[in-house]
Amino acid sequence: MSSLWHPYTQMQTSPPPSTVTGGDGPYFILEGGERLLDATCSWWCMIHGYRHPRLIKAIQSQADTLCHVMLGGLTHEPATRLAEALVHVSPDGLNHVFFSDSGSVGMEVAMKMAVQYQAQRGRPEKRRMLSLMRAYHGDTSGCMAVCDPEEGMHSLFAGFLPRHLFAPAPTAPFEATREEAAHDIQALRSMLEAHHHEIAALLMEPLLQAAGGLNMTSPFYVQAARELCDEFNVLLIFDEVATGFGRTGKRFAADHAAVTPDIMVLSKGLTGGYIGHAATLATSDVYDAFLSDDDDHAFMHGPTFMGNPLACRVALESLAVFEEDDYLGKITDLNAVLCQELLEADDWHTHPAIRDVRVLGATAAIEVSEPAVLQGVQEYARKQGVWIRPFGHWLYTMPAYITTPEELRRITDVMKGWFDGD
Ligand SMILES: *Cc1c(COP(=O)(O)O)cnc(C)c1O
After folding, report:
1. Rounded mean pLDDT of 169-179?
2. Are strands 235-239 and 354-360 parallel, antiparallel or unpaired?
3. What are the backbone dihedrals phi and psi of residue 341, each rounded to the nearest 5 degrees, phi first?
4. pLDDT band for position 150 (cuts 50, 70, 90)
5. Which is the most buried residue in 213, 234, 397, 401, by most CB within 10 A?
6. pLDDT tens per residue, range 49-82
7. What pLDDT score was predicted for residue 269?
8. Residue 420 has pLDDT above 90, yes or no
9. pLDDT of 101-139, one tens digit each?
């Protein structure tokens, strides 16, 4: 009998989870001393790995000064400095930062902002979201309603979730030309043509739909989304909760397309995973729509822990380490290993169950024909000292950026070895 209820877990039949007692770089350590190389950096957030001395020190020194204070009517230096730093590193034009405590809430904030923006710009009928199939934006109800309807369990929660609109998931790969992406772009245009009068915002995980199946797409698609949103007076929201801070090879996925969304959400890598936090960034155009003599035009949202000083301070340190330790360079090196081992090496992907192999930045996914193909891979990996956790049709890695090329090869060897076996 367990008092602790685990996520996405059938508590009746699942084996008891392993107990983690510590961590060290890209490894975490289990009770009994087993060291596992984490191929997924704890749901993609521990980008500096475990027990990074600079991040620990930042938290410790902040804890000694101020652990928490509300942002209602008060402010503090870690929050103001982090807001400025995020404006500085994010795409040009995102000048304002609203903090919250998780990726899902950051997305809730973005959606509320978009609806209220439209109302205050005199377009109150624009109150629905346009999302994409295969999207994942979080597990709170507002976010579930914009997740892929099947994966997001819309039928189970029918009557509870608001109903939004969905365009097809893009199919053109990252390398596609604009012509090759034209079909995807046209599908987006058709939805906007038919429904723009009721759409507040188009939201997407730019370039990489993560938890919805590691679907990668072209920067041309992202650019076209920007153009279409301008044409149809719809806000563009980028959910960079997973892609932010280097995962796709540039600091933000938006940077590949040189596009500025109206609203952008950051979380997972924001604090290097050391404390849950999120930031919803907005352009001045969005922000200005909330300025008025009327108090009712203010943005009515305020999570208790928004701008938590410990989180802001460790996020500032995370940004500094990212810069000073040349993480974009490290990500380029990791990408080279992933391309070499998984795409160029042709000694392994002949297995009939493999449908596709994709690499983008420090992300690689092997898509298989059915989930059963991956049954047992976790145990197989663990015997070789690697922690990997496939979901659905996907065996993937999103390693911490401090993972060395040699360590990453241990991960890709496990991924390939699973298919070499028979
Ligand atoms: C993980 C994730 C979220 C949700 O973040 P939480 O912190 O788990 O609430 C939202 N969007 C994307 C793209 C994510 O990967």
Report:
1. 97
2. unpaired
3. -75, -35
4. confident
5. 401
6. 999 999 999 999 999 999 999 999 999 999 999 9
7. 98
8. no
9. 999 999 999 999 999 999 999 999 999 999 999 999 999
Q: Which of 294, 278, 275, 184 is nearest to 228 (CA)?
A: 184
What's the Cα-to-Cα distance from 202 to each of 143, 235, 342, rounded to whole Å?
13, 6, 33
For residue 242 and ligand 1, the question of a CB distance below 6 A is answered with yes
pLDDT reading at 347 higher than 80: no
Domains and CATH numbers, the chain: 57-323 (3.40.640.10), 326-420 (3.90.1150.10)
Q: How far is the CA of 313 from the centre of ligand 1 (A)?
A: 21
Ligand 1 touching residue 253 (CB < 6 A)? no
Report DSSP letters for 117-181, one per residue: HHHHTT-TT--EEEEETT----SSHHHHTTS-TTTTTTTTTTTTSPP-EEEPPP-S-TT--TTTT
Predicted pLDDT of residue 422 = 46
Q: Is the minimum distance from the CB of 215 to ligand 1 under 6 angstroms?
A: no
Residue 238, H or E segment: strand 235-239
pLDDT value at position 88? 98
Catalytic positions are 8, 136, 239, 268
Q: What's residue 421's pLDDT?
A: 65
Tell me which of 207, 237, 247, 267 to substitute to probe ligand 1's pocket, judged by most ligand atoms within 8 Å of the beta carbon. 267
Mutation probe of ligand 1 site: the residue of 8, 45, 100, 104 with most atoms within 8 A of C-beta: 104
Task: For residue 241, report the distance from its CA to the centre of ligand 1, in Å.
Answer: 6
Query: Do residues 24 and 240 lie in contact, with contact meaning Cβ atoms separated by under 8 Å?
Result: no
Pocket flag, ligand 1, residue 104 (CB < 6 Å): yes
